[in-house]
Amino acid sequence: MSSRTVIRGGLVITASDEIHADVLIEDGRIAALAASGTSAAEAWTAERTIDATGKYVIPGGVDAHTHMELPFGGTFASDTFETGTRAAAWGGTTTIVDFAVQSVGHSLREGLDAWHAKAEGNCAIDYGFHMIVSDVNQDTLKEMDLLVEEGVTSFKQFMAYPGVFYSDDGQILRAMQRSAENGGLIMMHAENGIAIDVLVEQALARGETDPRYHGEVRKALLEAEATHRAIKLAQVAGAPLYVVHVSAMEAVAELARARDEGLNVFGETCPQYLFLSTDNLAEPDFEGSKYVCSTPLRPKEHQAHLWKGLRTNDLQVVSTDHCPFCFVGQKELGRGDFSKIPNGLPGVENRMDLLHQAVVDGHISRRRWIEIACATPARMFGMYPKKGTIAPGADADVVIYDPHTEQIVSAETHHMNVDYSAYEGKRLTGRVETVLSRGELVITEREYTGHAGHGVYTPRSTCQYLN
Fold first, then answer.
1. How far is 242 from 28, CA to CA, in rounded Å?
2. What is the pLDDT of residues 71-93, one digit of tens each?
3. For the whole model, what pTM was predicted?
Protein backbone atom coordinates (compact mmCIF):
# COMPACT_ATOMS: atom_id res chain seq x y z
CA MET A 1 0.00 0.00 0.00
CA SER A 2 1.37 3.38 -1.02
CA SER A 3 0.97 6.19 1.53
CA ARG A 4 1.26 9.90 0.79
CA THR A 5 1.60 12.94 3.04
CA VAL A 6 1.77 16.59 1.99
CA ILE A 7 3.23 19.29 4.25
CA ARG A 8 1.89 22.64 3.09
CA GLY A 9 2.83 26.27 3.61
CA GLY A 10 6.00 26.03 5.67
CA LEU A 11 9.46 27.55 5.26
CA VAL A 12 11.68 24.63 4.28
CA ILE A 13 15.17 25.14 5.74
CA THR A 14 18.16 22.96 4.82
CA ALA A 15 21.89 23.58 5.20
CA SER A 16 21.94 25.24 1.77
CA ASP A 17 18.49 26.75 1.14
CA GLU A 18 15.44 28.44 2.63
CA ILE A 19 12.33 28.20 0.45
CA HIS A 20 8.57 28.53 0.99
CA ALA A 21 7.62 25.12 -0.35
CA ASP A 22 5.21 22.24 0.01
CA VAL A 23 6.73 18.82 0.59
CA LEU A 24 5.34 15.57 -0.83
CA ILE A 25 6.16 12.38 1.07
CA GLU A 26 5.56 8.99 -0.49
CA ASP A 27 6.30 5.58 1.03
CA GLY A 28 8.59 6.97 3.72
CA ARG A 29 10.69 9.17 1.44
CA ILE A 30 10.65 12.73 0.20
CA ALA A 31 9.09 12.51 -3.27
CA ALA A 32 9.08 16.17 -4.34
CA LEU A 33 9.20 19.82 -3.29
CA ALA A 34 7.27 22.59 -5.04
CA ALA A 35 6.87 26.28 -4.29
CA SER A 36 3.78 26.82 -2.13
CA GLY A 37 0.72 27.98 -4.05
CA THR A 38 1.97 26.84 -7.46
CA SER A 39 -0.15 24.62 -9.67
CA ALA A 40 2.39 21.79 -9.26
CA ALA A 41 1.99 21.82 -5.49
CA GLU A 42 -1.77 22.34 -5.62
CA ALA A 43 -2.16 19.24 -7.81
CA TRP A 44 -0.79 16.90 -5.15
CA THR A 45 -3.29 14.67 -3.38
CA ALA A 46 -2.56 12.71 -0.25
CA GLU A 47 -4.18 10.76 2.57
CA ARG A 48 -2.67 13.17 5.10
CA THR A 49 -2.10 16.93 4.89
CA ILE A 50 -0.09 18.80 7.50
CA ASP A 51 -0.47 22.57 7.68
CA ALA A 52 2.91 24.18 8.39
CA THR A 53 1.88 27.79 7.78
CA GLY A 54 4.07 30.11 9.84
CA LYS A 55 6.34 27.20 10.82
CA TYR A 56 9.71 25.87 9.73
CA VAL A 57 9.96 22.54 7.94
CA ILE A 58 13.41 21.15 8.75
CA PRO A 59 15.23 17.82 8.46
CA GLY A 60 15.13 15.63 11.54
CA GLY A 61 18.17 16.17 13.74
CA VAL A 62 21.13 13.77 13.58
CA ASP A 63 22.75 13.35 17.00
CA ALA A 64 26.03 11.56 16.29
CA HIS A 65 27.11 11.16 19.92
CA THR A 66 24.85 9.42 22.45
CA HIS A 67 25.38 6.84 25.19
CA MET A 68 22.18 4.93 25.96
CA GLU A 69 22.51 2.27 28.70
CA LEU A 70 26.27 2.91 28.95
CA PRO A 71 27.96 1.13 31.85
CA PHE A 72 30.14 3.71 33.63
CA GLY A 73 31.55 4.23 37.10
CA GLY A 74 29.74 1.26 38.65
CA THR A 75 26.34 2.21 37.26
CA PHE A 76 24.50 2.64 33.94
CA ALA A 77 23.30 5.64 31.94
CA SER A 78 19.67 6.06 33.00
CA ASP A 79 18.17 6.27 29.50
CA THR A 80 17.47 3.02 27.70
CA PHE A 81 17.28 2.91 23.92
CA GLU A 82 13.50 3.06 24.33
CA THR A 83 13.34 6.09 26.64
CA GLY A 84 16.30 7.85 25.04
CA THR A 85 15.09 7.63 21.44
CA ARG A 86 11.58 8.69 22.46
CA ALA A 87 13.05 11.77 24.19
CA ALA A 88 15.20 12.44 21.11
CA ALA A 89 12.06 12.45 18.95
CA TRP A 90 10.37 14.92 21.32
CA GLY A 91 13.35 17.18 20.72
CA GLY A 92 13.26 16.91 16.93
CA THR A 93 16.07 14.37 16.53
CA THR A 94 15.27 11.47 14.21
CA THR A 95 18.62 9.65 14.05
CA ILE A 96 21.17 8.87 16.75
CA VAL A 97 24.57 7.25 16.44
CA ASP A 98 25.36 5.51 19.73
CA PHE A 99 28.59 3.92 20.94
CA ALA A 100 29.00 0.16 21.18
CA VAL A 101 31.75 -0.72 23.67
CA GLN A 102 34.56 -3.22 23.35
CA SER A 103 35.63 -4.40 26.81
CA VAL A 104 39.29 -5.14 27.39
CA GLY A 105 39.96 -8.81 26.64
CA HIS A 106 36.91 -9.09 24.39
CA SER A 107 36.38 -8.67 20.65
CA LEU A 108 34.80 -5.75 18.83
CA ARG A 109 32.16 -8.19 17.57
CA GLU A 110 31.06 -9.10 21.11
CA GLY A 111 30.64 -5.44 21.98
CA LEU A 112 28.74 -4.64 18.79
CA ASP A 113 26.43 -7.65 19.21
CA ALA A 114 25.67 -6.59 22.79
CA TRP A 115 24.63 -3.10 21.64
CA HIS A 116 22.53 -4.46 18.78
CA ALA A 117 20.71 -6.59 21.37
CA LYS A 118 20.04 -3.53 23.58
CA ALA A 119 18.69 -1.43 20.71
CA GLU A 120 16.87 -3.81 18.40
CA GLY A 121 13.09 -3.49 18.61
CA ASN A 122 13.31 -0.73 21.23
CA CYS A 123 13.99 2.46 19.28
CA ALA A 124 11.43 5.10 18.30
CA ILE A 125 13.80 6.56 15.68
CA ASP A 126 16.59 5.26 13.44
CA TYR A 127 20.01 4.52 14.89
CA GLY A 128 23.56 3.57 13.97
CA PHE A 129 26.67 2.64 15.93
CA HIS A 130 30.22 3.81 16.38
CA MET A 131 32.63 1.34 18.00
CA ILE A 132 34.62 2.17 21.13
CA VAL A 133 38.01 0.45 20.78
CA SER A 134 39.42 -0.23 24.25
CA ASP A 135 41.86 -3.04 23.44
CA VAL A 136 44.03 -2.55 20.34
CA ASN A 137 45.70 -5.78 19.20
CA GLN A 138 46.15 -7.65 15.92
CA ASP A 139 42.70 -9.25 16.16
CA THR A 140 41.05 -5.90 16.89
CA LEU A 141 42.75 -4.29 13.91
CA LYS A 142 41.48 -7.03 11.57
CA GLU A 143 37.98 -6.68 13.01
CA MET A 144 38.02 -2.95 12.24
CA ASP A 145 38.20 -3.81 8.52
CA LEU A 146 35.18 -6.12 8.82
CA LEU A 147 33.12 -3.55 10.72
CA VAL A 148 33.78 -0.86 8.10
CA GLU A 149 32.52 -3.26 5.43
CA GLU A 150 29.26 -3.78 7.31
CA GLY A 151 28.55 -0.11 8.00
CA VAL A 152 30.21 0.62 11.35
CA THR A 153 32.68 3.11 9.91
CA SER A 154 33.90 5.09 12.94
CA PHE A 155 35.96 4.07 15.95
CA LYS A 156 36.35 5.95 19.21
CA GLN A 157 39.50 5.96 21.29
CA PHE A 158 40.23 7.55 24.64
CA MET A 159 43.33 9.39 25.77
CA ALA A 160 41.54 9.61 29.15
CA TYR A 161 40.26 7.09 31.75
CA PRO A 162 43.37 4.95 32.36
CA GLY A 163 42.36 1.41 33.34
CA VAL A 164 38.95 1.69 31.63
CA PHE A 165 38.92 2.92 28.02
CA TYR A 166 42.43 4.40 27.78
CA SER A 167 44.68 3.78 24.78
CA ASP A 168 48.35 4.76 24.74
CA ASP A 169 49.96 6.58 21.82
CA GLY A 170 51.18 3.34 20.26
CA GLN A 171 47.70 1.80 20.30
CA ILE A 172 46.22 5.01 18.92
CA LEU A 173 48.80 5.10 16.12
CA ARG A 174 48.09 1.49 15.13
CA ALA A 175 44.33 2.09 15.01
CA MET A 176 44.83 5.28 13.01
CA GLN A 177 47.10 3.47 10.54
CA ARG A 178 44.40 0.84 10.10
CA SER A 179 41.69 3.44 9.56
CA ALA A 180 43.90 5.15 6.96
CA GLU A 181 43.76 1.86 5.03
CA ASN A 182 40.12 0.83 5.56
CA GLY A 183 38.44 4.25 5.29
CA GLY A 184 37.26 4.38 8.90
CA LEU A 185 37.23 7.56 10.96
CA ILE A 186 38.92 7.72 14.38
CA MET A 187 36.95 9.73 16.94
CA MET A 188 39.10 10.92 19.82
CA HIS A 189 38.34 11.78 23.44
CA ALA A 190 41.29 14.15 23.77
CA GLU A 191 42.36 14.68 27.38
CA ASN A 192 45.67 13.70 28.95
CA GLY A 193 44.25 11.10 31.34
CA ILE A 194 47.60 10.11 32.84
CA ALA A 195 48.34 13.69 33.93
CA ILE A 196 44.73 14.25 35.04
CA ASP A 197 44.89 11.22 37.35
CA VAL A 198 47.92 12.77 39.10
CA LEU A 199 46.01 16.02 39.61
CA VAL A 200 42.93 14.14 40.88
CA GLU A 201 45.03 12.28 43.44
CA GLN A 202 46.68 15.51 44.62
CA ALA A 203 43.37 17.40 44.87
CA LEU A 204 41.75 14.65 46.96
CA ALA A 205 44.83 14.52 49.23
CA ARG A 206 44.31 18.24 49.87
CA GLY A 207 40.69 17.59 50.82
CA GLU A 208 39.34 19.16 47.63
CA THR A 209 36.41 16.80 47.11
CA ASP A 210 33.55 18.99 45.80
CA PRO A 211 32.25 18.71 42.21
CA ARG A 212 33.90 21.98 41.16
CA TYR A 213 37.32 20.35 41.49
CA HIS A 214 36.38 18.00 38.66
CA GLY A 215 36.67 21.02 36.37
CA GLU A 216 39.85 22.27 37.98
CA VAL A 217 41.87 19.06 37.61
CA ARG A 218 40.76 18.36 34.03
CA LYS A 219 42.65 21.39 32.79
CA ALA A 220 42.00 23.08 29.45
CA LEU A 221 45.73 22.81 28.70
CA LEU A 222 45.54 19.02 29.06
CA GLU A 223 42.66 18.97 26.56
CA ALA A 224 44.69 21.14 24.20
CA GLU A 225 47.83 18.99 24.63
CA ALA A 226 45.93 15.79 23.89
CA THR A 227 44.18 17.40 20.91
CA HIS A 228 47.56 18.48 19.52
CA ARG A 229 49.02 15.00 20.09
CA ALA A 230 46.05 13.27 18.45
CA ILE A 231 46.40 15.56 15.41
CA LYS A 232 50.11 14.77 15.08
CA LEU A 233 49.53 11.01 15.44
CA ALA A 234 46.83 11.20 12.76
CA GLN A 235 49.24 13.14 10.56
CA VAL A 236 51.91 10.44 11.01
CA ALA A 237 49.33 7.75 10.19
CA GLY A 238 47.92 9.66 7.22
CA ALA A 239 44.47 9.27 8.77
CA PRO A 240 41.52 11.62 9.30
CA LEU A 241 40.59 12.61 12.85
CA TYR A 242 37.34 13.69 14.53
CA VAL A 243 37.76 15.19 18.01
CA VAL A 244 34.66 14.75 20.17
CA HIS A 245 33.18 17.16 22.74
CA VAL A 246 35.65 20.02 22.31
CA SER A 247 35.22 22.36 25.28
CA ALA A 248 38.33 24.57 25.56
CA MET A 249 39.40 27.56 23.47
CA GLU A 250 42.95 26.19 23.44
CA ALA A 251 41.72 22.95 21.84
CA VAL A 252 39.76 24.91 19.21
CA ALA A 253 43.00 26.72 18.37
CA GLU A 254 44.76 23.38 17.78
CA LEU A 255 41.97 22.26 15.43
CA ALA A 256 41.98 25.58 13.57
CA ARG A 257 45.75 25.36 13.06
CA ALA A 258 45.51 21.80 11.72
CA ARG A 259 42.69 22.71 9.35
CA ASP A 260 44.65 25.75 8.13
CA GLU A 261 47.42 23.28 7.24
CA GLY A 262 44.91 21.37 5.11
CA LEU A 263 44.63 18.33 7.39
CA ASN A 264 41.47 16.19 7.51
CA VAL A 265 40.77 17.12 11.13
CA PHE A 266 37.24 17.74 12.39
CA GLY A 267 35.78 18.95 15.68
CA GLU A 268 32.52 18.54 17.56
CA THR A 269 31.21 20.52 20.48
CA CYS A 270 28.09 20.06 22.61
CA PRO A 271 25.33 22.34 23.95
CA GLN A 272 26.61 22.07 27.52
CA TYR A 273 29.86 23.84 26.55
CA LEU A 274 27.95 26.54 24.67
CA PHE A 275 25.37 27.27 27.39
CA LEU A 276 26.80 26.09 30.74
CA SER A 277 30.05 26.82 32.59
CA THR A 278 32.14 26.19 35.70
CA ASP A 279 29.60 28.38 37.53
CA ASN A 280 27.26 25.37 37.33
CA LEU A 281 29.93 22.99 38.66
CA ALA A 282 30.36 25.30 41.65
CA GLU A 283 26.66 25.22 42.64
CA PRO A 284 26.32 24.49 46.40
CA ASP A 285 24.92 21.44 48.23
CA PHE A 286 26.44 18.99 45.74
CA GLU A 287 24.16 20.41 43.00
CA GLY A 288 27.34 20.88 40.94
CA SER A 289 27.53 17.11 40.51
CA LYS A 290 24.67 17.37 38.00
CA TYR A 291 27.10 19.11 35.65
CA VAL A 292 30.04 16.69 35.91
CA CYS A 293 30.99 15.48 32.45
CA SER A 294 34.26 14.99 30.56
CA THR A 295 35.62 17.04 28.96
CA PRO A 296 34.41 19.32 31.77
CA LEU A 297 32.50 22.57 31.63
CA ARG A 298 34.83 25.55 31.23
CA PRO A 299 34.78 29.17 32.45
CA LYS A 300 32.30 31.32 30.50
CA GLU A 301 34.96 33.03 28.38
CA HIS A 302 35.47 29.80 26.41
CA GLN A 303 31.93 30.00 25.00
CA ALA A 304 32.66 32.86 22.59
CA HIS A 305 35.54 30.85 21.09
CA LEU A 306 33.29 27.82 20.57
CA TRP A 307 30.61 29.94 18.86
CA LYS A 308 33.28 31.51 16.68
CA GLY A 309 34.60 28.02 15.81
CA LEU A 310 31.09 27.01 14.73
CA ARG A 311 30.75 30.12 12.56
CA THR A 312 34.17 29.70 10.91
CA ASN A 313 33.78 25.92 10.49
CA ASP A 314 36.75 25.10 12.70
CA LEU A 315 34.04 23.15 14.58
CA GLN A 316 31.60 21.37 12.29
CA VAL A 317 29.13 19.44 14.45
CA VAL A 318 27.07 19.91 17.60
CA SER A 319 26.18 16.58 19.23
CA THR A 320 25.00 16.01 22.78
CA ASP A 321 27.24 13.32 24.31
CA HIS A 322 23.92 12.41 25.98
CA CYS A 323 24.89 10.23 28.95
CA PRO A 324 22.39 10.80 31.77
CA PHE A 325 22.76 9.76 35.40
CA CYS A 326 20.12 10.57 38.00
CA PHE A 327 21.10 12.95 40.79
CA VAL A 328 19.54 10.64 43.39
CA GLY A 329 21.43 7.39 43.71
CA GLN A 330 23.83 7.91 40.77
CA LYS A 331 25.52 11.34 40.85
CA GLU A 332 25.42 10.94 44.65
CA LEU A 333 27.94 8.10 44.41
CA GLY A 334 30.54 10.87 44.36
CA ARG A 335 29.60 12.65 47.59
CA GLY A 336 32.89 13.27 49.36
CA ASP A 337 34.95 12.32 46.27
CA PHE A 338 34.33 14.13 42.97
CA SER A 339 36.26 11.45 41.08
CA LYS A 340 33.46 8.96 41.81
CA ILE A 341 30.68 11.10 40.29
CA PRO A 342 29.49 9.35 37.09
CA ASN A 343 30.51 11.54 34.14
CA GLY A 344 27.71 12.63 31.83
CA LEU A 345 24.80 14.98 31.18
CA PRO A 346 21.31 14.55 29.73
CA GLY A 347 20.68 16.54 26.57
CA VAL A 348 19.36 14.52 23.62
CA GLU A 349 15.96 16.23 23.93
CA ASN A 350 17.34 19.78 24.22
CA ARG A 351 19.88 20.12 21.40
CA MET A 352 17.69 21.31 18.51
CA ASP A 353 15.86 23.84 20.71
CA LEU A 354 19.05 25.22 22.28
CA LEU A 355 20.60 25.67 18.84
CA HIS A 356 17.46 27.43 17.61
CA GLN A 357 17.87 29.77 20.59
CA ALA A 358 21.40 30.40 19.28
CA VAL A 359 19.78 31.51 16.00
CA VAL A 360 17.44 33.84 17.92
CA ASP A 361 20.43 35.18 19.90
CA GLY A 362 22.42 35.85 16.71
CA HIS A 363 25.24 33.32 17.23
CA ILE A 364 24.46 31.35 14.05
CA SER A 365 22.15 31.56 11.02
CA ARG A 366 19.13 29.32 10.44
CA ARG A 367 20.94 27.39 7.73
CA ARG A 368 24.01 26.94 9.93
CA TRP A 369 21.68 25.53 12.64
CA ILE A 370 20.57 22.83 10.21
CA GLU A 371 24.12 22.33 8.96
CA ILE A 372 25.70 21.63 12.36
CA ALA A 373 22.74 19.64 13.75
CA CYS A 374 21.54 17.66 10.71
CA ALA A 375 23.49 17.81 7.46
CA THR A 376 27.12 17.78 8.61
CA PRO A 377 26.74 14.93 11.12
CA ALA A 378 24.96 12.94 8.41
CA ARG A 379 27.82 13.58 5.96
CA MET A 380 30.54 13.08 8.57
CA PHE A 381 29.23 9.62 9.37
CA GLY A 382 28.15 8.42 5.94
CA MET A 383 24.37 8.87 6.00
CA TYR A 384 23.81 11.81 3.62
CA PRO A 385 21.53 12.48 1.71
CA LYS A 386 19.41 9.66 3.19
CA LYS A 387 19.54 11.64 6.45
CA GLY A 388 20.18 15.31 7.19
CA THR A 389 18.29 17.07 4.40
CA ILE A 390 14.90 17.55 2.75
CA ALA A 391 15.36 16.57 -0.89
CA PRO A 392 13.80 14.03 -3.28
CA GLY A 393 14.96 10.54 -2.34
CA ALA A 394 15.87 11.41 1.25
CA ASP A 395 14.21 9.58 4.13
CA ALA A 396 11.12 11.54 5.19
CA ASP A 397 12.63 12.48 8.56
CA VAL A 398 10.93 15.86 8.91
CA VAL A 399 10.24 18.25 11.78
CA ILE A 400 7.54 20.93 11.82
CA TYR A 401 9.14 23.56 14.05
CA ASP A 402 7.30 26.49 15.61
CA PRO A 403 9.89 29.29 15.84
CA HIS A 404 7.69 31.59 17.95
CA THR A 405 6.35 29.49 20.85
CA GLU A 406 8.19 30.04 24.11
CA GLN A 407 9.03 27.21 26.48
CA ILE A 408 10.75 26.82 29.83
CA VAL A 409 13.05 23.81 30.06
CA SER A 410 12.35 21.63 33.08
CA ALA A 411 12.73 18.09 34.40
CA GLU A 412 9.00 18.33 35.16
CA THR A 413 8.18 18.33 31.46
CA HIS A 414 11.07 16.61 29.70
CA HIS A 415 10.92 13.01 28.49
CA MET A 416 14.45 11.83 29.27
CA ASN A 417 14.63 9.20 32.01
CA VAL A 418 16.56 11.38 34.45
CA ASP A 419 15.51 13.31 37.54
CA TYR A 420 16.97 16.71 36.65
CA SER A 421 17.52 18.99 33.67
CA ALA A 422 20.91 20.55 32.98
CA TYR A 423 18.98 23.59 31.64
CA GLU A 424 16.31 23.84 34.37
CA GLY A 425 14.37 27.09 34.12
CA LYS A 426 15.96 28.24 30.87
CA ARG A 427 13.59 30.17 28.61
CA LEU A 428 13.77 29.19 24.95
CA THR A 429 12.02 30.56 21.88
CA GLY A 430 10.97 27.82 19.47
CA ARG A 431 9.57 24.33 19.92
CA VAL A 432 9.11 21.10 18.02
CA GLU A 433 5.48 20.59 17.03
CA THR A 434 5.35 17.50 14.79
CA VAL A 435 7.98 14.89 13.90
CA LEU A 436 7.98 12.33 11.10
CA SER A 437 10.44 9.46 10.91
CA ARG A 438 10.53 7.82 7.48
CA GLY A 439 7.09 9.33 6.85
CA GLU A 440 5.50 8.03 10.05
CA LEU A 441 4.23 10.44 12.69
CA VAL A 442 6.25 10.06 15.90
CA ILE A 443 5.20 13.35 17.49
CA THR A 444 1.85 14.73 16.34
CA GLU A 445 1.14 18.30 17.47
CA ARG A 446 2.98 17.74 20.79
CA GLU A 447 1.63 14.22 21.37
CA TYR A 448 3.76 11.10 21.20
CA THR A 449 2.33 8.86 18.49
CA GLY A 450 5.41 6.75 17.80
CA HIS A 451 6.33 3.35 19.14
CA ALA A 452 9.33 1.29 20.16
CA GLY A 453 10.56 -0.75 17.23
CA HIS A 454 9.76 1.78 14.51
CA GLY A 455 13.41 2.88 14.49
CA VAL A 456 15.70 0.69 12.41
CA TYR A 457 19.43 0.12 12.40
CA THR A 458 21.16 2.23 9.75
CA PRO A 459 24.46 0.98 8.31
CA ARG A 460 26.71 3.86 7.27
CA SER A 461 29.18 4.54 4.49
CA THR A 462 32.55 6.14 5.24
CA CYS A 463 33.03 9.85 6.02
CA GLN A 464 31.79 11.90 3.08
CA TYR A 465 34.29 14.75 3.65
CA LEU A 466 37.26 12.61 2.60
CA ASN A 467 38.56 12.27 -0.93
1. 31
2. 988 899 999 999 999 999 999 99
3. 0.98
